[in-house]
Records
---
Amino acid sequence: MKKVILIGAVSLSNKEDGVMQKFLSQAHAFDELGAQVDCIGYDRNSVVVSHYKNGRFQCEEIIAILKNIKSRRFSLWLGVRNYIKTQKYDLAYIRYPLIDFIVLRTLRSVRKSCSKVVIEIPSYSLEIKNITTIHKGLYILDHVLHNNCAKLVDKILYVGSKVDSIFGCVAEQIPNGLPEQIKQIPSTGYRFEGNRIVLICVSRMNFFHGYDRLLNGLAEHYKKKNDYVVDVVLVGDGFCRKEYERIVETNGLIEHVKFTGLLKGDALTDEYRNATIGISTLGLYRKGFTEASSLKTKEYLVRGLPFVYAGNEIGLDDSFPYALKMPNDASVISIDKIVDFANRIKVESAELVKEKMKAYAEEKYSWKRILQKACGEYLN
């Protein structure tokens, strides 16, 4: 049996953490591919080695103690370095940490103990601009040192615009896969009754979500005579909420836009059950991206809810009939196009659409499929 170790700055005891959910899903995928899987990450005030078994990580060994918050990064990579020197693995799968001197030394030890080394960059490209002063020094150091990866890493997997190599290493574009938690959520389908269309936006309302484009499009929709009532439900909270509220108030959209705040569980599912169309990220261009792989589109797929997005969604075919692609720029979102899209969907039953979308999600975005394609050669 092949041995795989996952390494990253991940809180293994926080089941709500998105990175932890991703690690757990990747561990599950490697397990399904027939490997024995270990993981190094944080567990409260320690750095631990955990073994994946029966759908969860089980702590096997404490390899470092976290004395304070400032020492977390150093303790993690020093702990990895000391532990890996005495081990042998067929594959090390590392979440990109930004390269400094301790990480570089650790990678050299990993290279000696592991037959193959793969790094995953969750969001590429790495740019120094728009980085906080606290972290800017680390990004600058990474920029100086990261080309040392070429001799230490067999492949870099990344989510971002297509490139042939990164830091002198072979690079392979991947989508974000389906977290195991997403697979468990209810498939709610879509609801389109009479002439009312409900658009649902679920996010932390960051600048790149771009819902201002949608709200400005809604304002244009109600300036002219039309046959459809289009309402927007904004679930979540965040930096841009005040701007969205201002657009709604200024354009007299209060009766057509609802802000729910943060929702979970049944309350969130109820909002999904009333929705016609899901809205994914509309402002990738604000991050300088043309391509991305949004977890929200995966959730819409699993729920069986047709959706709207902008830019290129990695792994999603442009011809996929239950997704509507919008321009990745500052233009106003056309509500007329969304109405036409909803009417095209309406010819199929919600149950049939739900089945097709969920099957597509499993085919395109299962971590087992993604990692088999990207790392299967290292597990044979």
Note: The CA atoms of residues 91 and 116 lie 5 Å apart.
---
Amino acid sequence: MKFAVGTQDYRSIATHGGRTRRFLVFEAEAGGEPVEVARIELAEDEVLHLAGDGRPHPIDAVRVVITGSSGEGFINHMKRRGIEPVTTLEADPVRAIRDYFAGTVKAAPPPEHPHEHHDHGLEDAPRECHGTPA
């Protein structure tokens, strides 16, 4: 099973899943040790926050995406893609995958503040934020 773990530094889990541009890709099965098999570096217009339009995306090759705190829009984008979104307070990617299989993920709370509509720096992009027209 393939996992993508959001990261900014390729060592720890990123805290904002929707804006993360780097992912560690692991192959893992229950009872086995997760093995890093690839890395994904997204362009600014490919961040998962904007990936709700159904176009093919590099993240589509995984079954589970693990990030820190993520909003409802990000979670819904992943579910529409057939990817299980998992948020965690855990900082270590390998430990988070082990926790997933053990059923002991320390779920991250939703963001404390409501996400305001904002400019994503993409003037020509569809005017949508978290699956809702802006």
Note: DSSP finds two helices and seven strands in the chain.
